[in-house]
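Task: sequence in, structure out. Protein: Cytochrome b5 heme-binding domain-containing protein.
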Amino acid sequence: MSFEPKQKVELDPPKDDIISIDYLSKCDGTNPDYPTYVAIKGTVFDVTGNKAYGPDGSYKVFAGKDASRALAQSSLKPEDCRPEWDDLSDEHKKVLNDWYTFFSKRYNVKGKVEGATNL
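Result:
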């Protein structure tokens, strides 16, 4: 996986706002009044504008939730889109950290998920 975007992305300074699970769930790409967010390890990334996370996108399952476990396991199953990842293998944790790095170089950090402990 290449971590550097093909074209440099100018990102805003990361925010540390607390984002509730309820608000995050509304940011699933289906509501035009809300941005589209994906959380990884409790950090919320703004993926608005990337059609892959929209209602018809191939990664729509990740939008509006902390999808850490699914990303670590390279899974597109909705039941895997949850924040628990502590019990995963070292190999899966490395994959998760790679995804975190990938997102952090492309998308603005909007804050942390309320109650997230895996920070």
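The beta strands are 17-19, 37-40, 43-46, 108-113.
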